[in-house]
Structures are given as structure tokens and as C-alpha cells.
Amino acid sequence: MANFKKFKKNVETQFKSMYPNGKELYLTDIDREVLWLEYLSLFPEDANQIFRERTKHDCQNCRTFVKRFGNIVAISQSGALMSIWDNHSSMEYPYNEVAKGMSKLVKKFNIKSIWRTYEKSMGIDHTTQRTENGDIRWQHLHCTAPQKFIVNGDGINGFLVESKTRQESFHRALSTLSLDAIDTTLELIGPEKRTDDEQYLYKGNEYRGIVSEFRKHKIKFDKIKTVDGKNRYAWTVTAKTPHISGIRNSVIGTLLQDLSEGVDLNGAIGAFESKVAPDNFKRSSKIVSKGMIDMLDKEQNETSC
């Protein structure tokens, strides 16, 4: 089992390298039984011979590890997936081929949730079998979970559902709220030096920060070409800054939605202010934004041509 001991150590080393500086870990959406069966099938016959009743690597403890933890991934700065099997170039045959196949398989599937566990020990490190000829020490796939990823057993499901809801909400916001609507909203809010009385948007100062932050993410999101890449970006951002995920369903989000859907500017502002302004608040005049003026100039120039 000397080669297997190096194999399990490489898997553990790779796992530890995936969460530096608070990086989040996730699970891809592959069936657990398929994951295990693929793991076994990747061993060449000459490297997985029958030992008593089962093949050498058909181990209950490794089975539990692969099914529970084999689809753990991280997202790199470039948006690519990293798996616990990626250190295959440092492994010996046949484990390098097994890990290479597992890495490729795990990354074929979309992320389904953030990863959390309720126990520190991920699997069992080793077991001892007593025989007539002496003890046999069996090595198993095993890692240790950092405290950050450990959640009380009763709280895991709620945590995972909440994180998934945040990701879906943020992804929807990035997909449906337009950059024009964001820019118009920021124009209505105006620069920081503008007082509340001078703003086009009632209490606009309160929303400048989150709208500006969302704009940066919108620009990055729109540059991503693939569906998977966009999904991963939403996971990464909501894991780091969960407060941004709910912007679409916030009060300022209703204004962004209306403007994105083509609602008249004054009508959209009126709907927004009906939610945030006091009952006795009255706007003295209609709002004409710079964007509206530019659009009017463009239409006039086109007409004159």
C-alpha cells in the first residue's frame, strides 16, 4: 500500500491548497454513486486485483470518503474549477491516472452548493486488521476539515439552502438589471457632495454604495462568455460579500428593475419614492436626467439628417 499512502497524501495536500486566505469550497452536482463507481473503474485491472471477496480498492471507508468529499471544488481567480484530485502530476501510476480521470469528471458538472461538514475528520485515516499472520494496517483516503467549514449538523441544510438562494438571486440580478438602469440610478443619486435636498432621488445617498458596488460586478459579469463562468462568478461574489446578493429584491432594486424593463423615468421614481418617502412628500417638478437629454439630442440629430 506504499503507493496508496503517497496517493492519499497528495489528495490531502491538494485539498489544503484549495482554501488559502478564506477561499470558499463548493460541491459539484454529480451523483455520489456514479462518482464512486467511476473511481473504481479508473483503476487498471492489474492494479485492482481481488483481495478475498472484493477488489483491492473497493474499500468501505474510501467509498464513504469519495461519495461525501470527492466532488469538492474551489474556484480560481480566473474562474476555473480546482478539485481535490488535481495534484495527479505528482502521483505514481496508477493513482495518477485515477486522479486525472476523477478531476476531469468532477469538473464536468455545475456547482450545486457551498460545501460544509459537521465533523472535523473527513473519513478514517487507517484501520488495522488482525490476522493469523499478524496485523494488516489499511490506509484510507482522509483529510481534516478546517473549522471554517464545520457547521452544527442541524444547521447545515439551512445554511446550504440560504447560500444557494443568495447565489440564484444575485445571478438573476446580474442577468436582468441593465447597465443603463444602473447608470441612470447613480446619476439620480448624484455625487457624494450633493445633499439630500439637492438629490433627484429621495434619500439617494443611502443607496450610492451598494449600487456602485453592484455596477462593478455587472461589468465583470457581462464580460464572462460562458454560462458556467457566470454561475461561478455569482457563487464567488455571494460567498465573499453576501449583502450584495439581495439587491434585486431591495427597495432600490425595484427602481433598477423598472428602469431595466423600460418604465418611464418619472413613473419609476414615483413608484420608488412611494415606498421610501413620507406620505406628505411631493416632488415639485418632473426629472430630466442627463441620459434623457442625450437621447433626445440623438433623436433630433437623426431627424435632421
In short:
This protein has helices spanning 2-16, 32-41, 60-69, 95-106, 156-176, 179-189, 208-223, 227-240, 251-260, 265-276, 290-304; strands at residues 26-28, 50-51, 54-55, 72-75, 81-83, 111-114, 121-122, 126-131, 134-139, 143-144.
Descriptive notes:
It is a single chain. The protein is 48% helix and 11% strand. The protein is built from eleven helices and ten strands. The strands form four sheets. It has a four-stranded antiparallel beta sheet. A two-stranded antiparallel ribbon has the order 2-3. The protein has a two-stranded antiparallel ribbon with strand order 7-10. Strand 4 and strand 5 form a beta hairpin. The radius of gyration is 27 Å and the shape is elongated. About 2% of the residues have low confidence.
What's the helix and strand layout?
Layout: H1 2-16, E1 26-28, H2 32-41, E2 50-51, E3 54-55, H3 60-69, E4 72-75, E5 81-83, H4 95-106, E6 111-114, E7 121-122, E8 126-131, E9 134-139, E10 143-144, H5 156-176, H6 179-189, H7 208-223, H8 227-240, H9 251-260, H10 265-276, H11 290-304
Antiparallel strand pairs: 1-4, 1-6, 2-3, 4-5, 7-10, 8-9
Please name the defining characteristics of this protein.
11% strand; 305 residues; alpha+beta; 10 strands; 48% helix; 4-stranded antiparallel sheet; two-stranded antiparallel sheet
Could you describe the largest sheet, including whether it forms a barrel? 4 strands, antiparallel
Count up the domains: 2
Could you give the distance between the termini?
82 Å
Outline, from the CA principal axes? elongated
Radius of gyration: 27 Å
Low-confidence stretches: 49-54
- Write down the overall mean pLDDT: 87
* Lateral strand order in the biggest sheet: 5-4-1-6
* Number of DSSP strand runs: 10
Task: Please state the structural category.
Answer: alpha+beta
The helix/strand order is HEHEEHEEHEEEEEHHHHHHH
Helicity range: 40-55%
Q: Count of helical segments?
A: 11
The percentage of residues in β strands lies in 5-15%
